[in-house]
Amino acid sequence: MKFFVCVLTLCMALVSVSAISAVDLKLQPYPNAREVNHSNTVASDYLLALGSYKKVDGNWMVDRSQRLSGTLERITFELPADHNAEDGFSFYKEQLDKYNLRELFHCKARDCGTSNSWANNHFKIIQLYGLDQYQFCAAYEITNANEKPFYVVLYAVMRGNKRAYVQLEILHVDKVDDVGVASSPETLLKLITLNGYFVFPDFAVKDVQSSALLQDKTAQAQGKATQVQAKAGEPQVKTEELQVKSAHVQALANLLNLQPAITIALVGHDYSAISLEQQQLASKKYAEQIKAALVTQGIDPKRVQTFGVGSLAPAGRGDRDVRVEVVKINK
């Protein structure tokens, strides 16, 4: 009986792990594809590839990466005959686009390096060893309000026998990286060239005043004297604790160093419940903080302008009350 209970408990745990990514992301399998491998594990040292494989001292190594931990789901699909690698890659990318998606890295064909490196060194799945000119790879971050992010790796390749395979990996992290998981400078350049702007990631604002007033109310409820009590009719001043992750500052600085002709505007937005004037002052402060961080990285301050528009623009990302957009200035 004890053995039966143990087995049942283990099965329930495995089902729970499997449902994490499937329920939250709701990705549909490729029609009529054959599932070659499928695993759910707890990964304590997952290597998230954020760049292509390049030859360094005779060895093929990924040029950018980050170590993360969390619950990892890995699936390998063999596509039906007469379906190619781009079909498989596009099928999953279109599903991912429905979420709050941030591209971290993307490559195709020989720009990815050798398929042998991805198949044998990175994924360690022999079926993924294909033709270098027929491969696609990307890494994405998917975020939801008040939830830890998902990191999704998508790799597709066609083998010499014309059969195409897709590798899908979904990591639900157990903790948020304090430094930040930054997009490659090449990805940022693509975004700012195609769209004219991108949202500075992971920008967070903690309302210090709200925290102080909450402590004040708690102390009053306990009958204690307080020193954080506003006078009747006195206007409340919004005070913020700004949090910018260093990896994103470095990535933006790298972009500007790679493209010395580009000048940018940092445009702050604020949708909190304060006056428009306060929103504009606060949002410009956000932009100026990022500019100051870029200047410390050696960026010429003349290449960066700052603006604060408050709530005078569409809200955009619905999971944040504040944001800063990096906008390309056309000369």
Key structural traits:
60s Ribosomal Protein L30, Chain: A; alpha+beta; 331 residues; 4-stranded mixed sheet; disordered N terminus; elongated; 7 helices; 6-stranded antiparallel sheet
Describe it:
The protein is elongated. The chain starts with a helix and ends with a strand. The chain has 331 residues and is of the alpha+beta class. It has 7 helices and 14 strands. It has 2 domains: 24-177, no CATH class; 191-216 and 237-328, OmpA-like domain (60s Ribosomal Protein L30, Chain: A, 2-Layer Sandwich), CATH 3.30.1330.60. It has helices spanning 2-25, 85-96, 115-123, 185-194, 208-221, 246-258, 276-296, and strands spanning 34-49, 53-56, 59-62, 65-78, 101-108, 135-142, 150-158, 164-173, 197-199, 204-207, 240-243, 264-270, 304-308, 322-328. The strands form 4 sheets. It has a 6-stranded antiparallel β-sheet, covered by helices on one side. A 4-stranded mixed β-sheet has the order 9-14-12-13.
Outline:
The chain has 331 residues and is α+β, with helices and mostly antiparallel strands. The chain has 7 helices and 14 strands.
Question: Layout of SSEs?
Answer:
Layout: H1 2-25, E1 34-49, E2 53-56, E3 59-62, E4 65-78, H2 85-96, E5 101-108, H3 115-123, E6 135-142, E7 150-158, E8 164-173, H4 185-194, E9 197-199, E10 204-207, H5 208-221, E11 240-243, H6 246-258, E12 264-270, H7 276-296, E13 304-308, E14 322-328
Parallel strand pairs: 12-13
Antiparallel strand pairs: 1-4, 2-3, 4-8, 5-6, 6-7, 7-8, 9-14, 10-11, 12-14
